Amino acid sequence: MFVAPIDRIRAGLSVLPALFLCFGTVGAVGTGGAADLPPLSHRLTLIEDPAPAPPLRLEDIDGVEHDLADLKGRLVLVNFWATWCPPCRREMPSMERLYQQFKERGLTVLAVAVGEDMDTVFAFTGQLDPAPTFPLLLDTDSRAAQDWGVKGLPTSFVIDPEGRVILRAVGGTEFDDAAAVEQLVPYLPKP
Amino acid sequence: MRFTPQTGPNGTHSCRLSFRCAAAAAAVVAVLGGSPISAEPVRSDPETGAATYETQAHGVGLSLTQLLPDQVRAFYVARGFDLADADVFADACVYMTVLRNDTAPGELDFRLSEWSIHHDEEVRPLPPLDDWLAQWAARGVPDSARLAFRWAQFPSEQSYAPGEWNQGMLAMGLPPGSRFDLIARWTIADQTYEGRLDDVRCTD
């Protein structure tokens, strides 16, 4: 279970007003209202010539280091996102549902917050339903995003158990949609 | 609405859209017998009045929704900009921009450096991201704020397979109150396509 130190909670609360302001500005207003939001995609893009994934070794918001190299043998969804990014916020609950559905079968989700600090990311997590239980990594200088060739947020990659990038998703995606799940399941590690 | 599908000598396909004659555009689409080009009317946010301009061209969707100067200011001040620095960007006609490969016949590539604005009888490029970043560095905007700025912008270049898209801020570099046409360009398998939004208004 995730337990936050009280000083982190206080820090998170201190940035909440600014955060809500940003969400209001870029989210609801930027798209003209909920009914007009661009639809999330339901499919991932197949990478025709899978290549080894770039290195990814970052700390999460609890200070725990995660290294993609340690996850060989698992199917890994790497998601680059930011708290102020409306499609990132919209797709994240679907990542949690996907994670809950398949983590016992070998799925790992690593959500990499680009250019943001621990307090900002932590404050954000309490606004999601369901809240993410997978690691939220901090790419504070956005170097990892650049190393992975990310040009816009959100961008996600699926790494197969051999460590190769096999699928990608540019733009907000409903990861637990049946069409996306159908693409992912064949790559889950064999029992 | 004006709607003029074109195939120029260089093989560029384009469509031209404004929103005065939607019925005429629909008729042309019908005559073309299932052309992938269609038009949607502009809409306005009931609370802010911010307008959205949309077009569909060759299986690609493009939309602009103005972010009002106060909204832009608030966003960047919250990310570490001084008010004076945020004002510079807020007064440059900023739009939440969405480009999406809906049903194009393949993966598209675009560079914003190949898009253009028609304003006051002149054709001009969009202000490049690097110019903004250089300006923020010269004005002493903190690194973290510049990083937030960079990632909040619509990508300078990108590739979208069918179903892929991005949403980000795009400044036209025009004063509030301007009216302009935006011409977006992308390529699919070395073929260039255009999508055009005519008579976009920048509310001050």
From TrEMBL, chain A:
**Where in the numbering of this chain does the Thioredoxin domain appear?**
47-190
Q: Which Pfam families match?
A: AhpC-TSA (PF00578)
| GO biological-process terms attached to the record | cytochrome complex assembly
- Domain of life of the organism in this record? Bacteria
First-listed, main subcellular location of the protein, grouped into a coarse class? other
Q: Which UniProt keywords apply?
A: Cytochrome c-type biogenesis, Disulfide bond, Redox-active center
UniProt-annotated location(s): Cell envelope
Q: What's a single GO MF annotation on this record? A: disulfide oxidoreductase activity
GO CC annotation terms, alphabetical: cell envelope
By its UniProt entry, which PANTHER family does this protein fall under?
THIOL:DISULFIDE INTERCHANGE PROTEIN DSBE
Q: Under which name does UniProt file this protein?
A: Peroxiredoxin
Please report the organism this UniProt entry assigns to the protein. Thiocapsa roseopersicina
Q: What is the lineage of its organism?
A: Bacteria, Pseudomonadati, Pseudomonadota, Gammaproteobacteria, Chromatiales
TrEMBL record, chain B:
Entry protein name: Uncharacterized protein
